């Protein structure tokens, strides 16, 4: 998994939370996610009450940059708590959540009715917390100077399977007579689900698309082919904007302002964390991590390239969390 650059970390959180506050912290990165903790016996001197324990989560690759940044910074505050986060996609994360394998599940879409039913059947009560806004971003290769502004109808024409081999000239006769190369999040991804809902409207995605739960694979694919098009979360675009071009949709480009205002429609969306209620009550470390998440998610979302919620939304979340203790 790639290491995320924090765009404005110092300004967002202040030097008291920087990783340097806990020089003994280590991080292990695997294909499944990120685990942080400390090998030191001495807790970091942060003035906070020190806890021990473990917390586990999984889910959306879109939410992952926010959570991974929070996990890393939380390690400087509570070095005795080990927080592990996998990235199986929204759907894959909910599968683990339903199976009782995780304390929380990251999601780039609201939970589905069938997932709610399975959680109820499993006897798992949960609470939904919204942590940020995202703008699902359609991208093309920088050499593509013809499809930088698309309408929703054109996106449908491009992405919906119709049995043909699609060329750019099929969308507009003045565009190149070249086959379109597609890159899409995998079907376990909440980003895929959201695109399916608002663009495909339940129709099948083009069969020729390369699917991956790893958004970095999608970035590399589009960056390497002038005829490629793809989509993923806004933060992944910002992290790679030197090698990608963001497409305007119905005349509106994805920016912090257009995403927060809802002007970037229909591709603006909220991002969520779903927390297991019993774990919040029984695992003090998890409760503390969720409290830290809601207190810092806004600044961290901005730091990694997403859009924070209004402050009152985080306060509402904290009030809800307090009621679950």
Automatic annotation (TrEMBL):
Transmembrane intervals: none
GO cellular component, one term: plasma membrane
Listed name of the protein: Phosphate-binding protein
Subunit details: The complex is composed of two ATP-binding proteins (PstB), two transmembrane proteins (PstC and PstA) and a solute-binding protein (PstS).
Cleavable signal peptide: 1-21
Topology term for the membrane: Lipid-anchor
Physiological role: Part of the ABC transporter complex PstSACB involved in phosphate import.
